[in-house]
Amino acid sequence: MKLYSLSVLHKGASKANLLKAAYDLSSFSFFQRSSVQEFMTFTSALIVERSSHGSRASVKEQEYLCHVYVRNDSLSAVVIADNEYPSRVCFTLLDKVLDEFSKQVDRIDWPSGSPATINYTTLDGYLAKYQNPREADPMSKVQAELDETKIILHNTMESLLERGEKLDDLVQKSEHLGNQSKAFYKTVSICVCLF
Asked: Where in the cell is it found (predicted)?
């Protein structure tokens, strides 16, 4: 599971304006990073431009999932992740980032701002923190613990069933041994009576 990009944009009348972005491109080769970053920036802006106000959506692009949230006040955020990353955690991240951004950056700066002029430094921290959804999101952590408990319970049930099967074998063997001992007793009794 991996997050690659986290962007904050302003949805204008005709195009989206990038306000701030953070990238984790460490999984790409050095020579690919600039083109991948350009692709992610372009894709984020395009998705915001084509999304309506007050909407949340997930868009699949190649092996990536792009999650977008466009608020009614035109402030928008996009996170680009791999297919395995949980969507619910992405939308939680987008909510947090947009709430915090709107409190720290004046609304007047949104339409004309740029990454160089906007003073908002926590995107890199969020991108790093949310790389592991279990640590960043309490619900994911609880879900992972439940899944582990279910696996342990499943393994315990399997071992109980195996033990039960072994007990059944022992019961059958003891019944067979009991029948053989009765037959032996009868044979011995008959032999004793004959003598």
From this structure: Cytoplasmic vesicle membrane; Golgi apparatus membrane
Whether the per-residue pLDDT at 76 is higher than 80: the answer is yes
Amino acid letter, residue 144: A
Cα–Cα distance for residue pair 37/158, rounded to 1 Å:
49
Q: Which strands, in side-by-side order, build the sheet including 75-82?
A: 16-23, 3-11, 75-82, 64-70, 55-61
Residue 155 banded pLDDT, cuts 50, 70, 90: low
Any idea what the Cα angle at residue 190 is, between residues 189 and 195, rounded to 5°?
A: 100
CA-CA distance, 134 to 27, in Å (whole number)? 20
Is the CB of residue 24 less than 8 Å from the CB of residue 4? yes
How far apart are the C-alpha atoms of 111 and 121, rounded to whole Å?
19
**Of the candidates 50, 156, 139, 52, which has an alpha carbon nearest to the alpha carbon of residue 88?**
139
For the stretch 84-121, pLDDT in tens is 888 888 888 889 999 999 899 888 888 888 888 888 88
